[in-house]
Amino acid sequence: MWQMKQLIIILGLIIFTILSSHFFKKISYQDKIIKKLDSIVNELRLKCLNCDKKRDVLSSVSRLAKSPIDLFNDSVVIYNRVPKTASTSLMGLAYDLCKQNKFHVLHINTTRNVHVMSLTDQRRFIENVTTWQDKKPALYHGHVAFLNFQRFGYTQRPIYINVIRKPLDRLVSYYYFLRYGDNFRPHAVRKRKGNTMTFDECVKQEEKDCNPENMWLQIPFFCGFHVDCWQPGNEWALVQAKQNLVEHYLLVGVTEELEDFVAVLEAIVPRFFLGATQQFREGKKSHLRKTYNKVDPIPETVQKIRSSNIWRMENEFYEFALKQFHSIRKKTLIEKNGILQDRGQKFFYEKIRPR
Prior knowledge:
two-stranded antiparallel ribbon, 5-stranded parallel beta sheet, single chain, glycoprotein, elongated, 355 residues, Rossmann fold, alpha/beta
């Protein structure tokens, strides 16, 4: 009986020893796993000391993971056209090119042709532009003020382009357009049809249609939707318009040098404007819209208009844009056989490591 008890105790000790050994091995293995996980976690923590920047980088990498063709096909150009600046001629060119260059053209038609949108319409428009994949690549155009997508938290920024004109020339053109129309829609009835008063007579009699405040349009178009942008003579609006032109517009040309503007566009945005220069020179849309019965003002009229503060500010903005455009054109184009074309690549890569 005693021997049986001893045998049971010995067997129990052996089983206990085996189980204990297995248990301790398990603990040791789990300790190693925990230490390894700790090491990985610490490594990740070190790599994510600046997580916000990491997220931005990952977002950029995700975008760059697309092929160049995908990136081109995701492009959006916005041309917020200033009235009476030859914008119809430029858009006629875009409509001619859209099929062969495989992009969409969409006209922004606002109710009663107002130039500013409500905040809700701004949001809707931005959502359309950024998410309407079936219509990309796209060129949107319309008589609307500049809209900053970043104000609504969107990081995707469209390519903004525009054309402006000498302020007095634009005002005179619009004055006669309201009375006589143009050759684009010759049978359309304009607001001042039947009024034969010349611009000179209008200025002399200080009528409303030729008031210098009517020149206040190009500055607010670039300034944006802030209420002060549309207050004639507002100095802050002029500063903001200049800032937006430099920071948000890829290219701003002038009506007086429209062919040069087209040539620069073709060089810097070939996805949309490949073949535009030749089409402009040889096609029928380079001067698509001409105002009827337009008469240049006499020197006395010009002097009176130029004495106004509105003309001074609008002309300052025009000269600012013209200087910027000339600088870009000089660095971008070269004339060969009477044709403006891209200067070609002027940089290269070297000292690339590792080999």
